[in-house]
Amino acid sequence: MVYTTLETERLILRPISEEDDIFILNHFSDQQVTRYLYDYEPVKNMDEANEILAFYIDEDPYIQCRWVITNKVTNEKMGTCGFHKRDIKKGTIEVGYDLNSKYWGQGYMSEALKELFHYAWKNLCVTSICAEIAVDNIDSIRLVSKLGFKYRDSYHIKFRDQELMHNKYELPLVSIEDEPIYICYCAKITHQEVRDMVEKGLSSITEIREALGKNSMGMCQEKNPKGICCHEEFDAFIQQVYLEE
């Protein structure tokens, strides 16, 4: 399978290639980039960088793939994102991502992942995406929460003789043209609708409900078969992700 170049408003996502060897060496030797990557040590030399490249280029492309995140204006390579652990029978896949620290807090990764998830739904025949995150990586947990992921489980991994706790999050996918992820499927409430309300200064769940005009809120009688969260989870989601300081 040949993975294609993806494009967002500010970014180009290009399938990783052998030409990225110097970038991979510099990127994955950066202590800030690898701070919460507990599955392997920071890269120390070009041989180790090439091992990463080979994993995504030479291995089975149906199981894993990676894109280099590039600034559309400056053409600077900013980070990577992609999928691995694809289970074709179950329709699941795991997402991974990393970004140079000078680009943190500017919405780049959220922008890249939305495009990636839309691509996964359209092209990879997956029905859910998983993310496994170290519990102390608060920014990453907040990112996936805002993208609609739900907590599923916790487990430990051993790294440098330590048992480190990780959480597993899952995002069921829905085919949507404009906004790929709903907070509530039944009432067709999108993340972007709520973001817009919060940016306008609304500070309570009641105000957000009234502004959205969803008179059926809290009265849902059925679950979406794909398992997207329904009305009973709406209040908690808004409070946790959008109204907390």
Task: Report on this structure.
There is one protein chain. With 245 residues, the chain is of the alpha+beta class. The model is unreliable at 175-183 and 215-230 (pLDDT under 50). Helix 1 packs across helix 2 (46-57). It has 7 helices and 10 strands. It has 2 domains: 6-173, 3-Layer(aba) Sandwich (Aminopeptidase); 176-245, Arc Repressor Mutant, subunit A (Orthogonal Bundle), CATH 1.10.10. Strands 1-2-3-4-5-6-8-7 form an 8-stranded mixed β-sheet, with helices on one face.
Summarize the structure.
Helices cover 28% and strands 27% of the residues. By secondary structure, it is an alpha+beta fold.
Task: Jot down its keywords.
245 residues; alpha+beta; Aminopeptidase; Arc Repressor Mutant, subunit A; 2 domains; two-stranded antiparallel sheet
